[in-house]
Every structure is written in structure tokens, then in C-alpha cells.
């Protein structure tokens, strides 16, 4: 056996022990290190904040509206017949009483001539009978029969004159007449739509308000009409509203009148802005700091170094701000950043 073998073995063992002393603590941490890893020092979240102060706020409500003509009529004939003449140009302005359509009345005119002849003969007969009655040549009954015949003929003439009058279709008011749906020579009946006439100055706007705001509606109150796609805003005056709340939508239908100085057309869509109260002091907060929760809408207050989640009740909204009705008070500190990382009761510090 080699004499140097024990000496080499000793050195190998010494080397292994040295390596063990160096590397074992790194592979197997001590209890102290394990405790540090299990209980790391918590890092306190740094957040932005805002102090609650009441502000003056014009309380507006917005609604979708439609533009209506002041007056509008579908023109139709009251009798059946053939269109003889059309007296207007499509899209033109017409005055009240202007003749628009004429229906052929030849048959009525022939009947009228016949009735007028009968009336002339009946008048002559009535005069003769009256003279005889005065001389007691006939009885009162005979004269009454003759007079009754004359009156019946006159009644028939009056009825026929009414029919002849209905062959003329007149403009019911000053307005713009649109496209016509018939041509000369067309046979029409009372169900045939001939044309549409509208009075477009002034105009009306129609919109609905939720039930909870109906208390603020007053006749002659002013509203703002915002025309989409333009910078134009018009002022209208409320003149009427429906007598009851709609059962299905729980809204009240309101109408306002406005001067048509901007060329608006009936049927146009507009945005309506209605001012509920003037210079109302409210608490306003940014909409992005509100957190939806199972209990409702919440915010995080800063109290004693912690984030405290608080339920709030909101009111009206603008594009970026929300009115808070309940849940916060003057001087409260609200956390305005790192909202996603916040949990109720966690330590935070203000920047």
C-alpha cells in the first residue's frame, strides 16, 4: 500500500469541509433568514390626494330631442275624383288659402244647373200659391207643400255647393309644400295622400325628462338646443308638456318653441340642455376615482395613514366630474391615484 495515501485523504477531507462551510449556508438558509423571507418589511403605497370643497355648480340635465314643424298637414281630398289641375311648385312657399289642387267637378256642375232650374220653377209656383192663399183661393196646407218643395231644392243646392267647394284643395296655412304624390289626371280618393305642407317658422322641439325632474318644469322656462356637428346653440321656450307620466318610460313629454333662424329642418335630431337649479353648492369629484362595489359606488378616504373605502351616493354628472350627494363632507381627503392597488384599511402615505 502506498504510504502517501492517508496523507492525501486527509487533505481531501479538509477541502470538502471548507467547501461545505462556504456553500451550505447559501443552499440551506438559517432560521433568521427564513423568518426575514416570511415576514418581509411592507412597503407603504404613496398616493395623490384631493381635499373636498363645495363648489358652485349649474345643475343641468341633458335629453335627446327632435325638431317638429309648428304646423303640419297631409293634404288629402275629401271627395273622390280626377285631378284636373295642380297649382303649385314642389318645395315652394304657399300662402294660406292658395289653391293647390283642383278636382274635376263637371258632374256636380251639371247637377247644379238642374237644381237651379227646378228652384226657379219652384219659386214661381210658390209666388202664385202665396197670391192665391191671400185671396183664399187655396188652403194653407197646399201652400205649405209648395213652400216645402222649394226649401228642399234650396237645401240640395247648398249640399251640392259644399261638394263643389271640396273639389278645390286649399293651403290651410302659410307654409312650405313638399313633394307631390299625384299627377294631373290621377284619380284620387280621401285615402290618397296628395302632398305634405309644413309651417317651419317658428319650430318646435320635443323631448322627454325623467320622472324625478318633472318638478322643475315650468311654462316659459328656457332651454338650450345644441345642434350636433356644429358649434351652434339656440334658445327655446317651453310652452307645453303632457298631462301625465308615460307608464312605459317613466318620462314626461315636453315641447318648446324656437325661432328658426338657423335653417333647421323638421325631423332633425338635437341635444336639449335644461337647467334645473342655479348656482347650487355641491361636492364634485373626478369620475375616475369612483370604484364600483357590491354595496354601490365607493371612494377611498385618507384617515390616520390608511385608505378607508367609503360608500357614496352620486347625483348629476358632467363629462369628467360627478356630483356627490352623500358619503363625503367638507374637508375630507380623498385618494386620487393608484386606485386599482388600494384595499380597505391598507397603509398609505400622501405625496
Explain how this protein is built.
By secondary structure, the protein is an alpha+beta fold. The chain has 4 domains: 5-38; 47-57 and 282-350, conserved putative lor/sdh protein from methanococcus maripaludis s2 fold, CATH 2.40.420.20; 62-70 and 198-280, Elongation Factor Tu (Ef-tu), domain 3; 74-188, RNA polymerase II/Efflux pump adaptor protein, barrel-sandwich hybrid domain (OB fold (Dihydrolipoamide Acetyltransferase, E2P)). The protein has 4 helices and 20 strands. The chain has helices spanning 5-27, 31-38, 106-134, 140-165; strands at residues 45-47, 49-51, 54-75, 81-86, 93-94, 99-103, 168-170, 175-180, 187-188, 195-210, 222-226, 233-241, 251-258, 269-286, 291-293, 296-303, 306-317, 321-326, 333-335, 348-350. It has a 6-stranded antiparallel barrel. The chain has a 4-stranded antiparallel sheet with strand order 7-6-4-9, with no helix packed on it. α3 runs antiparallel to α4 (140-165). The longest helix has 29 residues, at 106-134.
Amino acid at each position: 500500500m502506498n504510504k502517501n495515501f492517508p496523507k492525501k485523504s486527509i487533505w481531501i477531507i479538509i477541502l470538502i469541509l471548507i467547501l461545505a462551510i462556504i456553500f451550505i449556508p447559501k443552499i440551506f438558509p438559517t432560521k433568521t433568514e427564513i423568518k426575514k423571507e416570511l415576514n418581509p418589511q411592507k412597503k407603504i403605497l404613496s398616493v395623490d390626494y384631493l381635499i373636498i370643497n363645495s363648489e358652485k355648480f349649474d345643475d343641468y340635465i341633458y335629453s335627446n330631442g327632435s325638431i317638429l314643424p309648428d304646423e303640419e298637414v297631409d293634404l288629402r281630398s275629401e271627395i273622390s275624383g280626377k285631378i284636373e289641375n295642380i297649382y303649385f311648385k314642389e318645395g315652394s312657399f304657399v300662402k294660406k288659402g292658395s289653391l293647390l289642387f283642383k278636382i274635376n267637378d263637371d258632374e256636380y256642375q251639371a247637377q247644379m244647373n238642374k237644381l237651379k232650374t227646378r228652384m226657379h220653377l219652384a219659386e214661381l209656383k210658390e209666388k202664385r200659391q202665396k197670391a192665391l192663399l191671400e185671396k183664399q183661393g187655396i188652403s194653407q196646407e197646399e201652400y205649405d207643400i209648395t213652400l216645402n218643395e222649394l226649401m228642399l231644392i234650396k237645401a240640395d243646392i247648398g249640399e251640392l255647393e259644399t261638394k263643389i267647394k271640396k273639389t278645390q284643395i286649399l293651403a290651410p296655412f302659410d307654409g312650405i309644400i313638399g313633394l307631390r304624390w299625384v299627377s294631373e289626371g290621377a284619380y284620387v280618393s280621401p285615402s290618397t295622400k296628395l302632398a305634405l305642407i309644413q309651417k317651419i317658422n317658428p319650430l318646435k322641439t320635443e323631448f322627454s325628462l325623467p320622472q324625478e325632474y318633472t318638478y322643475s318644469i315650468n311654462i316659459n322656462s328656457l332651454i338650450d338646443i345644441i345642434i350636433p356637428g356644429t358649434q351652434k346653440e339656440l334658445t327655446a321656450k317651453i310652452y307645453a308638456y303632457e298631462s301625465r307620466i308615460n307608464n312605459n318610460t317613466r318620462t314626461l313629454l315636453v315641447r318648446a318653441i324656437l325661432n328658426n333662424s338657423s335653417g333647421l329642418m323638421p325631423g332633425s335630431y338635437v341635444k336639449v340642455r335644461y337647467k334645473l337649479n342655479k348656482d347650487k353648492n355641491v361636492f364634485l369629484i373626478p369620475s375616475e376615482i369612483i370604484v364600483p362595489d357590491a354595496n354601490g359606488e365607493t371612494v377611498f378616504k385618507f384617515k390616520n395613514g390608511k385608505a378607508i373605502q367609503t360608500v357614496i351616493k352620486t347625483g348629476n354628472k358632467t363629462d369628467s366630474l360627478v356630483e356627490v350627494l352623500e358619503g363625503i363632507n367638507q374637508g375630507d381627503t380623498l385618494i386620487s391615484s393608484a386606485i386599482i392597488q388600494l384595499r380597505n384599511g391598507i397603509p398609505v402615505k400622501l405625496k
